[in-house]
Amino acid sequence: MPIRPAYLAALSLAVLGVAGGTLSAARPDVPANFPEPPARKAIPAGNQVAVLAGGCFWGMEGVFEHVKGVQSVVSGYAGGAKADATYSKVSTETTGHAEAVRIVYDPAKVSYGTLLKIYFSIAHDPTQVNRQFPDTGPSYRSAIFPQTAEQRRIAIGYIAALDKADVFSKPIATKLEAGSFFPAEAYHQDFMRKNPNNSYTSRYDKPKIAALKKRYPALFKG
């Protein structure tokens, strides 16, 4: 099992009190009355797909697996070529990929806008540039990969609304990107479920799931 890039350095930072181990709802710059996303024009028929990048895909996967209406979550790589979509290559930070998750959801139970609300308020810190806490490099960037024109409209509108509301103390770094999604290696899938005592996810990802349950109990599933 490979060690997360920069994790050993993160442990040193944590000793100094630099690395943030309590995320999302614990951040003082995330208000309790987080703005609502733009309204959708209609409920799409059948299951839909969302692709989001926000740092280590272990935690992103773990958060969205606990959202009602989400059917499945797959960890993978988005924004680069298929031939380079391997952990060893992506970790060189030269392939153009972002660690991302592919979320299959039932739009009759949870909207794309609601997924984005969780993404911005719980799943990661959208103000960090080419990093998420201990992990640094463009593969850990904040990026949305819209799968439809309607998803693009909602994402653009929501980022604009968050900016206007001055939700965060720093500018939102999230970009809208295009590109295919490629599943990651099998050992990355359902990582938190398979490795409940992993030190990395215990420090950086379990607090996100706790925040999801506390902040949005009606959306949480065990």
Automatic annotation (TrEMBL):
- Residues covered by the Peptide methionine sulphoxide reductase MsrA domain: 50-200
Give the top-level enzyme category. Answer: oxidoreductase
Which transformation does this protein catalyse, written as a reaction? L-methionyl-[protein] + [thioredoxin]-disulfide + H2O = L-methionyl-(S)-S-oxide-[protein] + [thioredoxin]-dithiol; [thioredoxin]-disulfide + L-methionine + H2O = L-methionine (S)-S-oxide + [thioredoxin]-dithiol
| Database matches in Gene3D superfamilies | Peptide methionine sulphoxide reductase MsrA
GO MF terms listed in the record are: peptide-methionine (S)-S-oxide reductase activity
Q: What EC number(s) does the entry state?
A: 1.8.4.11
Q: Which Pfam families match?
A: PMSR (PF01625)
- Top-level taxon of the source organism: Bacteria
Residues forming the catalytic site: 56
- How far does the signal peptide extend, from start to end residue? 1-25
What are the UniProt keywords, alphabetically? Answer: Oxidoreductase, Signal
* Stated role: Has an important function as a repair enzyme for proteins that have been inactivated by oxidation. Catalyzes the reversible oxidation-reduction of methionine sulfoxide in proteins to methionine.
Q: Which family does it belong to?
A: Belongs to the MsrA Met sulfoxide reductase family.
List the protein's name: Peptide methionine sulfoxide reductase MsrA
Organism field? Novosphingobium album
Q: Which gene encodes it?
A: msrA
